[in-house]
Amino acid sequence: NEKARNPADCTPVKRPEFNRPDPLIYSQSFLMSLGFAVTWDNPDITLQKVVGPLDQNAPPDPALTVPSSSLEADTEYDVVARIWNGSTSAPVVGLGVKFTQHGFGIGVAQQAIGNATANLGVKGGAGCPAYARTRWKTPKKKGHYCLQVLLEWFDDLNPANNLGQENTNVGIAQSPAKFTFALGNQQRERQTIRFEADTFAIAQPGVCDIEDI
Prior knowledge:
By secondary structure, the chain is an all-beta fold. It has one helix spanning 28-33, and strands at 23-24, 45-49, 76-85, 92-103, 105-106, 111-120, 130-137, 143-152, 163-170, 182-183. The strands form 3 sheets. Strands 1, 2, 3 and 7 form a 4-stranded antiparallel β-sheet that branches. It has a 4-stranded antiparallel β-sheet with strand order 6-4-8-9. The longest helix has 6 residues, at 28-33. The radius of gyration is 21 Å and the shape is globular.
């Protein structure tokens, strides 16, 4: 019976498939679900000038980085995603990374930009963070466009932190500027939408005093 069971008779299961990875990116939707303020200038998504053939796993080059708030229309850029792993025991080989764009708004249709794969090491180890990039030709029509990066893994410990977004301005002045905000509903049910203005930005890290360590 249950009371007479000896714990020593239980055989522990030690198999590698029970170590699940947690690929993640700065995810506004996940952070907002936890009650945090977010920035849409995503620290894990970078835009770069094109200087040669596409290397889908090359890290960003600071010398080639361009501000997403002042992009040229009908121009090619590299979109680089920085990817982290929340797991210290499970790496990821062949992580799928999907890049899409959509117009400025809520519930609007997405357009595919490209796909990449990345090999992601464990947290604190070699290969973490990993990088994935694709080439994006900005629309000819000037306006505000949202880039999204989705990490796709079949056995993710926390799939809620897999979607990151970067807001861009294509061919328009930074200030003052007028935007058309599109609103759509891709669901079958009626939805209530609330608009809020938010100017949150990630602060620069402070200087570490060695005496505080």
